[in-house]
Amino acid sequence: MSSTNHNLLLIDDDPRHAKALRAALLATSEGPSECEWVRTLSSGLKILNHKEVWAIFLNLFLPDSRGIDTFDKLHLLASAAPIVVLGGVDDEDICKTAMLHGAEDYLLEGHVDSYSFARAIRNILEREVARQELFIEKERAQVTLNSIGDAVLSTDISGNVTYLNVVAEAMTGWPCKDAMGHALTEVFQIVDGASHRPAPNPMELAIQGNRTVGLTANCTLIRRDGHECAIEDCAAPIHD
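Predicted structure:
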């Protein structure tokens, strides 16, 4: 969604909330300048069927829908838009459940005012900028890794593959999208060149010793298609 598309949708049957949100928009110098207000979930879904919005404020208790189902129905149609849910003073648990289901944030009755709306909008803007910066940084990192002449393969702490550069894809026969989530021992299958017995897993050794570990001599990689090639390799732990 374009960052210039900063129109808001408020789905809430309380006119006080609509008034507070409009006051917040008037006081905010950046971000959204327009807000569309509807009182029922069905009206909100109709809007989203033909129009994109930048963010949504959703009361979980509406005339035509109540509880977590309200969020789930909306999120199914508008999963790309940040959704801030609104609830009563006793609804914090259900609001937290909505966040587990994908909500961006929540506001409780008694704190639903122009200040809280403005703060929620600023938080959405800041997270949007952070996501864009992270995406750009990730793209730069992938360009760098793909320009390296060596194969680069990474895993999570459990030993499941999270990334292969283009050289690693060619060497193992595994496209990155196919390899992601598979165990390293499945994608990077190495054996002793003489005995053909499985070689020690360098990732496990690197994590256990918290140091860079090289492969034992005379290692052979078995590609996805069954072809074999002799390799040299090292594994290093990288901490978040």
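Summary: Residues 29 and 141 are 34 Å apart (CA to CA).
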